[in-house]
Amino acid sequence: MSARTRADPEASAERADASRPRQEGPADLRLVPPALAAWATAAVMLHAPPGRAVTTVVASVLTAAVLLSTRGRLLLARRRVARRSRVTVHAVAATLLCVAAAAGSAGLHGADVRSGPVPELAREYARVLAEVEVTADPRLTRPRVNGNRMAPVSVLIEAEVRRLERTGAAARKTRAPVLLIVDTGDRQPAAPAAGQGSPWLSLLPSTRLRVEAGLAPAREGGDRFAAVLRVDGREGPRAVGGPSAPQRLAGRLRAGLREATEDLPEDARALLPGLVVGDTSRVTPELDRAFRETDLTHTLAVSGANFTILLALLLGPPGLAQRAERRGLAPRLGISLRATAVLGGVLSLAFVVVCRPDPSVLRAAACGSVALLALATGRRRSLVPALATAVLLLVLYDPWLSRSYGFLLSVLATGALLTLAPRWSEALRRHGVPPRVAEALAAAGAAQALCAPVVAVLSARVSLVAIPCNLLAEAALAPATVLGFLALAAAPVAMPSAEAVAWCAGWPAGWIARVARTGAAMPGAGVDWPGGWTGAAALGAVTVAALLVGRRLLRHPWWCAASALLLALLVVQPRPLVRTITGWPPPDWRMVMCDVGQGDALVLAAGDGAGVVVDAGPDPEPVDRCLRSLGVTRVPLVVLTHFHADHVAGLTGVLRGREVGGIGTTGLEEPADQAAAVRRAAAAAGVPVTRVGAGERRRAGDLSWEVVWPPPGGHPAVAGPNDASVAMLVRTGGLRLLLLGDLEPPAQRALARSPAARDLAGVDVLKVAHHGSAYQDPGLLDLAAPRLALISTGEDNSYGHPAPGTVEVLRARGAAVLRTDRDGALAVLPGTGGDGEVAVARH
Question: What is the rounded CA–CA span in Å between residue 756 and residue 738?
Fold first, then answer.
């Protein structure tokens, strides 16, 4: 037998060994203490006085030097020192040096915010002429209700001031991070698409602008900004320097992706650019809320998962990266390992350029690279030190990451995948769970267990559907991301091909959006939880207890099934079960005044699963939640009494997932922007909009109503939107209800003298006008003489609603007064005594 033949069995054994993952020992945690120490030091030193940072640097370096020199003398004097002692001394010294580096970096970054002319002038609220360089993509503030109007929507731009000039003073060169708040004068601008929208939204990073602005201090204790610059943006930006070549290329690619996705369905059109490059400009507030409720927000931003998917396409699945049969594009094309490494570097650079080289993208690239490349070696033992190294380098590069919740969540999620998930997966496999299912469950569960306390700090809420929603979305994330990047690359050279690929990517992107919307629509999708770090600690304790109980439950399949069924009932909350337990909604409810904060939203029962909605409140979520709790899936009519935002801004919540027959509005379309917003929402849902006026009568089942105000031809008492409110006299279940919208005293007096006044005498229930404000007409209150007066108002509102005098007058006239800020949602139903007796249930 030849030597070559004799060697073949050994070679075969080596090849067989290569096809198996390497056996690993315990995790190497030596780099974890230095990384955590640097993280904590940076977080503390960012806002510490400059002298403290210098003191910390000097003290840490001297202590490390003394420790190392002392170790040397001890080693010479005592040769029997154990190796473990030498390692410990080195570890402590390395930690101290990392603390010194973090303190120095944080001190320098903090000085940029506190020193120089920018913060000085901000404290004086000075007007300046500044030259700034854009450092991140502009973004819009979310629309919000301010009183009875929508607050103006501003453009937010992160930038650096390079030159500053105050009237009567010489220009000064500086370098300070600032936030530009640009008022474009528009209250609901359309999101930019393919370069459309406000010109401020089209600015690329590295563009230099010259702006005239008012300086103001940043938030106390603040962010990473030296000041806030408030800019009147109605004239558009004045650029004095164009963007750099890489940013122009990235801008063209991103614009091409937006154009390629222009004709996709709404959710896919909004979501796909976010999945690929973090462009969330098209994401609606409703879709954003759904992703927050289901803990899927990491898919709306550039994350390590995006980059991991791209590298997995090149290198193959991580679990096969060190096996002979790995299936990435590189081995299939015969590319060598060195060439593959070069391609991975090019891919990393392209990812950072296209997705913007800001700290969040660098964090995503670093964490994604660490997770995949460490897994690609087949050595789980190297994962934790690699992650610790990435954390250390990123914190030293940008100390502000140490105070970023996004960075914390990213590190926790990655750490969970590297430490807890493999053990949990192995435990599930031992109990008969298929390997792939076990890995998916373990990954989602581990990430949720570590991240949930931090999420609770931010939202004061715990999602009960996060794990199943993440599991369902995970299957579509990879194809959506890969196809999205293909569309991104093809758009500049072949737009038809890019559109075809984007159409394919729209299917998995739409699936992710449907998962988020479906999960968020579950009645028990989340539970309120105490916010702050106290609530986080409590949730952590509950999580640990649940894990300990869960380990025991795994041994008992029937108990596992019972627990899963109980959780499913808690999430789905079948209406018969909820009604039995809570008594809400009461079986014979006739009207419900929803608790929507400072606004109005009422529901009138119109048959099984149907309800007429009068006003929609200031926010889509509370009214949607109220309708879901009542089981209302059909809305024959939505009556919007007038166009103030606290009555109509929640309209999309009523339209969400329900069959709506029409929308009736007052004839005075003021404020004009809110009237236009109502028509846009109605057109998007395919719901007709009509005007209603006094004398109109309608019926839905045993519910009937008559519009008693405003007169069709106008009236001198209608001096503004409040006086144009639609007022209705409702008859249902033997009860008479008078709904007054926000009528002011002039219109109330005119109504009391109108032909309909004879029908208004002695009503059972009065919806008090204008949230119980002090401006009420005594004559109308005397005429109505209600048994029950209901007031819809927000807790601790700044208007003083309801006015104490109004409440006293109503009670003096014999009315029981209930209010949503104290009593919650209120359901009106016929009393058991008959003769118009009224009963009320509170929720």
Answer: 12
Residue owning tokens 């009461």: 586
Three-state DSSP at 138 gives coil
pLDDT for 355-395, tens place per residue? Answer: 776 655 666 677 666 655 554 554 545 667 878 888 898 89
Q: Tell me if the bond preceding 585 is cis, omega within 30° of 0.
A: yes
**Is residue 260 within 8 Å of residue 495, measured between CB atoms?**
yes
Distance, CA of 800 to CA of 793 (rounded, Å): 10
CA atoms 781, 782, 783, 784: torsion sign: positive
Query: Three-state SS for 146?
Result: strand
Contact between 102 and 120 under an 8 Å Cβ cutoff? The reply is: no
At 244 the three-state DSSP class reads: coil
Place of tokens 């030293």: 396
Nearest Cα residue to 707 out of 687, 724, 684 = 724
CB 671 within 8 A of CB 618: no
Cβ atoms of residues 78 and 140 within 8 Å: no
Rounded CA separation 635/638 (Å): 7
In angstroms, rounded to a whole number, what is the distance separating the alpha carbons of residues 421 and 319? 14
Tens digit of pLDDT for each residue in 517-532? 999 888 888 888 888 8
The SS3 call for residue 82 is: coil
Maximum Cα–Cα distance across the chain: 118
Q: Give CA–CA dist 154/213, Å, rounded.
A: 14
- Residue (of 193, 74, 188, 94) closest to 142 by Cα position: 188
Write down how long the chain is. 843
In the predicted model, what is the mean pLDDT of residues 478-506?
90
Assess contact for 45 and 107: CB atoms under 8 A: yes
Residues 334-357 have pLDDT tens digits of: 776 667 666 766 777 777 777 776
- The residue to which tokens 């949930």 are assigned: 452
- Check if the beta carbon of residue 93 is closer than 8 Å to that of residue 99: no
What are the φ and ψ backbone dihedral angles of 635, each rounded to 5 degrees?
-125, 100
Which of 378, 258, 242 has the alpha carbon at shortest distance from 323? 378
pTM over 0.85: no
Q: Tell me the CA end-to-end span of the chain in Å, nearest whole number.
A: 89
Cα angle vertex 215, ends 131, 234, to 5°?
A: 70
